[in-house]
Amino acid sequence: MSATRRTFRDRGEAGRALAALLTAYRGRDDVVVLGLARGGVPVGWEVAADLHAPLDVFLVRKLGVPNWAELAMGAIASGGEVVLNDDVIRRLRISAAELEDIIDRETQELHRRESAYRGDRGQRSLPGKMVIVVDDGIATGASMKVAVRAIRSAGPAGIVVAVPVAPHSVCRELAAEVDDVFCATSPASFDAVGQVYDDFHQVSDDEVRDALERPTSDVR
């Protein structure tokens, strides 16, 4: 994990910087790269292309606090895995009804995106694979934690988390749950994932589909 402060032009450049940290996994036939939708998919494509590994999307939805959607009180993933931040829920006095409503709404959106990105294709088989989970950055870690726990239930040989930016504290927490954590930069003063990007536009469904359709083997 790098402590050097750096910025990235966009998610593509961030993915290439991240791939440079993952060379030990290049060319292995047991590696699968999963990009967290949506922002992690273009980053994940660069990683998968450099490693000559297959890329798939993994769907996680943040559970945003009512009237403050950017603040996560948890996350959900495909398969029904839920991780909650009890401290946030208790501190902000989120009611059970409010929590249930948000979980229902985000579950519907998760299912919509599954259909939009994959159509009739199912999730790539993960048993026995070394899974590299990629996002465009980590703030609270809620989305990544729920992804890791859901992926773990699929029986992979190992799980690696790889992100361009994250706080040191969250990386330490994740290190207790996975085989390794790679982070290209961890600013001493962390405000938001977007602080290290010149271009941090919201990734569209079309961008995700396009990335998933582009081959990642033999492109370099």
Q: Quick one: CATH class of the largest domain?
A: Alpha Beta
Looking at the overall shape, the CATH architecture of the largest domain is 3-Layer(aba) Sandwich
**Strand order within the widest beta sheet:** 2-1-6-7-8
Q: Assess the beta-strand content as a share of residues.
A: 15-25%
* Quantity of strands, as a count: 8
Helix content: 25-40%
List unreliable stretches of 5+ residues: none
The tally of helices reads 7
Shape: globular
Q: Summarize the helix and strand pattern as letters.
A: HEHEEEEHHEHEHEH
Question: Helices and strands: which structural class?
Answer: alpha/beta
The biggest beta sheet, please? 5 strands, parallel
Number of domains: 2
Task: Explain the overall architecture.
This protein has 220 residues and is an alpha/beta fold. The protein has two domains: 139 residues, Rossmann fold (3-Layer(aba) Sandwich); 56 residues, no CATH class. It is built from seven helices and eight strands; from the N terminus they run αβαββββααβαβαβα. A hairpin with a 2-residue loop joins strand 3 and strand 4. Helix 1 runs parallel beside helix 2 and helix 4 packs across helix 7. It is globular.
